[in-house]
Protein backbone atom coordinates (compact mmCIF):
# COMPACT_ATOMS: atom_id res chain seq x y z
CA UNK A 1 0.00 0.00 0.00
CA UNK A 2 1.51 3.38 -1.01
CA UNK A 3 2.10 5.96 1.74
CA UNK A 4 -0.41 8.75 2.30
CA UNK A 5 0.67 11.74 0.12
CA UNK A 6 0.51 14.00 3.19
CA UNK A 7 2.90 11.81 5.19
CA UNK A 8 5.82 12.36 2.85
CA UNK A 9 7.99 15.24 1.73
CA UNK A 10 6.93 18.82 1.20
CA UNK A 11 3.26 18.36 2.11
CA UNK A 12 4.15 16.93 5.51
CA UNK A 13 6.61 19.76 6.09
CA UNK A 14 4.11 22.39 4.91
CA UNK A 15 1.37 21.00 7.16
CA UNK A 16 3.75 21.04 10.13
CA UNK A 17 4.68 24.64 9.32
CA UNK A 18 1.02 25.72 9.18
CA UNK A 19 0.31 23.95 12.47
CA UNK A 20 3.29 25.61 14.16
CA UNK A 21 2.62 29.08 12.68
CA UNK A 22 -1.10 29.41 11.98
CA UNK A 23 -2.15 32.56 10.19
CA UNK A 24 0.96 32.94 8.06
CA UNK A 25 0.24 34.37 4.65
CA UNK A 26 1.34 32.85 1.38
CA UNK A 27 4.63 34.76 1.02
CA UNK A 28 5.60 34.02 4.64
CA UNK A 29 4.96 30.34 3.96
CA UNK A 30 7.04 30.59 0.80
CA UNK A 31 10.00 32.06 2.71
CA UNK A 32 9.67 29.69 5.69
CA UNK A 33 9.20 26.53 3.62
CA UNK A 34 11.83 27.22 0.98
CA UNK A 35 9.36 26.07 -1.69
CA UNK A 36 8.93 27.95 -4.95
CA UNK A 37 5.60 29.79 -5.06
CA UNK A 38 4.14 27.45 -7.71
CA UNK A 39 5.10 24.34 -5.75
CA UNK A 40 3.80 25.89 -2.54
CA UNK A 41 0.43 26.65 -4.13
CA UNK A 42 0.25 23.13 -5.55
CA UNK A 43 0.88 21.48 -2.16
CA UNK A 44 -1.31 23.99 -0.33
CA UNK A 45 -4.19 23.32 -2.73
CA UNK A 46 -3.81 19.60 -2.00
CA UNK A 47 -3.92 20.22 1.77
CA UNK A 48 -6.96 22.47 1.33
CA UNK A 49 -8.78 19.86 -0.76
CA UNK A 50 -7.94 17.19 1.82
CA UNK A 51 -9.48 19.40 4.53
CA UNK A 52 -6.27 19.56 6.55
CA UNK A 53 -5.87 23.33 6.32
CA UNK A 54 -8.20 26.27 5.82
CA UNK A 55 -7.44 29.58 4.20
CA UNK A 56 -9.04 32.98 4.73
CA UNK A 57 -8.72 36.27 2.95
CA UNK A 58 -7.33 39.03 5.17
CA UNK A 59 -7.39 42.16 3.08
CA UNK A 60 -5.04 41.40 0.21
CA UNK A 61 -3.46 38.45 2.01
CA UNK A 62 -4.40 34.79 2.03
CA UNK A 63 -3.79 33.44 5.55
CA UNK A 64 -3.58 29.70 6.19
CA UNK A 65 -4.66 27.88 9.36
CA UNK A 66 -4.85 24.24 10.42
CA UNK A 67 -8.35 22.84 10.07
CA UNK A 68 -10.40 22.97 13.26
CA UNK A 69 -8.85 26.11 14.76
CA UNK A 70 -11.67 28.02 16.46
CA UNK A 71 -12.72 31.38 14.92
CA UNK A 72 -11.76 33.65 17.87
CA UNK A 73 -8.28 32.15 17.87
CA UNK A 74 -7.98 32.57 14.07
CA UNK A 75 -9.07 36.20 14.37
CA UNK A 76 -6.55 36.87 17.14
CA UNK A 77 -3.73 35.21 15.20
CA UNK A 78 -4.51 37.24 12.07
CA UNK A 79 -4.25 40.43 14.15
CA UNK A 80 -1.02 39.35 15.81
CA UNK A 81 0.90 38.37 12.67
CA UNK A 82 1.80 41.89 11.44
CA UNK A 83 4.46 43.28 13.77
CA UNK A 84 2.95 46.78 14.10
CA UNK A 85 -0.55 45.43 14.73
CA UNK A 86 0.91 43.02 17.28
CA UNK A 87 2.53 45.94 19.11
CA UNK A 88 -0.80 47.79 19.28
CA UNK A 89 -2.69 44.69 20.45
CA UNK A 90 -0.08 43.91 23.09
CA UNK A 91 -0.17 47.48 24.35
CA UNK A 92 -3.97 47.40 24.65
CA UNK A 93 -3.81 44.01 26.33
CA UNK A 94 -2.03 45.58 29.27
CA UNK A 95 -3.38 49.14 28.94
CA UNK A 96 -7.09 48.87 28.12
CA UNK A 97 -8.76 52.20 27.50
CA UNK A 98 -5.73 53.64 25.74
CA UNK A 99 -6.39 56.55 23.43
CA UNK A 100 -4.82 56.95 20.02
CA UNK A 101 -2.42 59.44 21.57
CA UNK A 102 -1.49 56.95 24.35
CA UNK A 103 -0.83 54.18 21.84
CA UNK A 104 1.22 56.48 19.62
CA UNK A 105 3.34 57.71 22.53
CA UNK A 106 3.90 54.24 24.00
CA UNK A 107 4.92 52.70 20.69
CA UNK A 108 6.73 55.71 19.21
CA UNK A 109 4.34 55.87 16.24
CA UNK A 110 2.99 59.07 14.74
CA UNK A 111 -0.62 59.58 15.90
CA UNK A 112 -1.90 59.18 12.34
CA UNK A 113 -0.16 55.81 12.08
CA UNK A 114 -1.49 54.64 15.44
CA UNK A 115 -4.97 55.77 14.38
CA UNK A 116 -4.66 53.83 11.13
CA UNK A 117 -3.66 50.65 12.98
CA UNK A 118 -6.44 51.07 15.54
CA UNK A 119 -9.05 51.56 12.79
CA UNK A 120 -7.79 48.48 10.93
CA UNK A 121 -7.93 46.40 14.11
CA UNK A 122 -11.39 47.76 14.92
CA UNK A 123 -12.70 46.88 11.47
CA UNK A 124 -11.31 43.34 11.97
CA UNK A 125 -13.23 43.10 15.25
CA UNK A 126 -10.12 42.89 17.44
CA UNK A 127 -10.32 46.35 19.00
CA UNK A 128 -13.39 48.12 20.33
CA UNK A 129 -13.44 51.89 20.38
CA UNK A 130 -15.15 53.39 23.39
CA UNK A 131 -15.70 56.93 24.57
CA UNK A 132 -12.65 56.82 26.86
CA UNK A 133 -10.34 54.95 24.48
CA UNK A 134 -9.74 51.54 22.97
CA UNK A 135 -9.84 48.03 24.37
CA UNK A 136 -9.52 44.52 23.00
CA UNK A 137 -12.79 42.85 22.08
CA UNK A 138 -11.62 39.45 23.34
CA UNK A 139 -8.44 39.70 25.43
CA UNK A 140 -8.68 36.04 26.46
CA UNK A 141 -8.50 34.91 22.82
CA UNK A 142 -5.43 37.11 22.34
CA UNK A 143 -3.75 35.60 25.42
CA UNK A 144 -4.64 32.05 24.27
CA UNK A 145 -3.13 32.77 20.85
CA UNK A 146 0.02 34.23 22.39
CA UNK A 147 0.50 31.40 24.86
CA UNK A 148 -0.28 28.60 22.41
CA UNK A 149 1.82 30.01 19.56
CA UNK A 150 4.45 32.03 21.45
CA UNK A 151 7.40 30.54 19.50
CA UNK A 152 5.86 31.70 16.22
CA UNK A 153 6.05 35.32 17.43
CA UNK A 154 9.78 35.51 17.98
CA UNK A 155 10.05 38.85 19.69
CA UNK A 156 10.58 40.10 23.22
CA UNK A 157 7.46 42.26 23.09
CA UNK A 158 5.27 39.15 23.35
CA UNK A 159 7.21 37.83 26.34
CA UNK A 160 7.00 41.17 28.13
CA UNK A 161 3.27 41.60 27.46
CA UNK A 162 2.46 38.10 28.68
CA UNK A 163 4.58 38.62 31.78
CA UNK A 164 2.66 41.80 32.63
CA UNK A 165 -0.69 40.13 31.85
CA UNK A 166 -0.05 37.22 34.19
CA UNK A 167 1.45 39.41 36.94
CA UNK A 168 -1.63 41.63 37.08
CA UNK A 169 -3.86 38.59 37.42
CA UNK A 170 -6.26 39.48 34.60
In short:
The chain has two domains: 61 residues, Arc Repressor Mutant, subunit A, CATH 1.10.10.10; 96 residues, Arc Repressor Mutant, subunit A (Orthogonal Bundle).
Would you write up a description of this structure?
- α1 packs across α3 and α4 (71-80) packs across α8 (139-148).
- The chain folds into two domains: 9-69, Winged helix-like DNA-binding domain superfamily/Winged helix DNA-binding domain (Arc Repressor Mutant, subunit A); 73-168, Winged helix-like DNA-binding domain superfamily/Winged helix DNA-binding domain (Arc Repressor Mutant, subunit A, Orthogonal Bundle), CATH 1.10.10.10.
- The protein is built from nine helices and five strands.
- It has helices at 9-20, 26-33, 37-49, 71-80, 83-94, 100-107, 111-123, 139-148, 156-168, and strands spanning 24-25, 53-58, 61-66, 127-129, 134-136.
- It is mainly alpha-helical and 170 residues long.
- The protein has a three-stranded antiparallel sheet with strand order 1-3-2.
**Fraction of residues in H or I helices:** 55-70%
Helix vs. strand class: mainly alpha
- Ends apart, CA distance between termini: 53 Å
Task: Let me know the average pLDDT.
Answer: 86
Major sheet: size, sense and barrel closure? 3 strands, antiparallel
Structurally, how many domains make up the residues? 2
CATH superfamily of the largest domain: Winged helix-like DNA-binding domain superfamily/Winged helix DNA-binding domain
Give the overall shape: elongated
Integer-rounded radius of gyration:
18 Å
Please tally the helical runs, counting DSSP H or I stretches of 4 or more residues: 9
**Name of the level-1 CATH class of the largest domain:** Mainly Alpha
